[in-house]
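Changelog note: in this version the structure field was regenerated for every chain. One regenerated record is shown below for reference.
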Amino acid sequence: MRRAAPRQRGIAAVELAIVMPVLVLLLAFPLALGRIFWHYTAFQYAAQDAARYLSKVPVSEMGNPTRGGEVARVAQAMVAQELAELAPGPVGYVLDVYCISESDSDGGSCAGEVPTAVRVKIKVYFADIFFADYTGLNLWLTVNVAYPYLGK
């Protein structure tokens, strides 16, 4: 049996060194996108829970100027608790809680007037800390959930 020529030794290592960066890039994109979708889903669930809570608050609490502000703070605390374990990036997230009424169609604070709808908006700057050098996936994720006010 003939032995391979000595100049053929190590050719597999050279081929692997050439192909490895391409394989890492092909792996980095699906992992980064999966992480983005996972965070987006968590933000969506948190916003839905807060909006559902706001939509069912009794009129007696929502119409009261002092209690309405407390209700909005409770919704913000719900979102903060649900998102406490996530680390979306260096900026964190921006949370807005709106109560939309007939006189204020753009939305405002939830204190004083009984709303016709409620809206929870979460905006986060998502920085990919693992594969940023390869993917460059740094973007703003926005979740906007609106429910009609049912607490009548």
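Spot check on this record: Residues 6-148 form one domain. The beta strands are 93-100, 117-127, 138-148.
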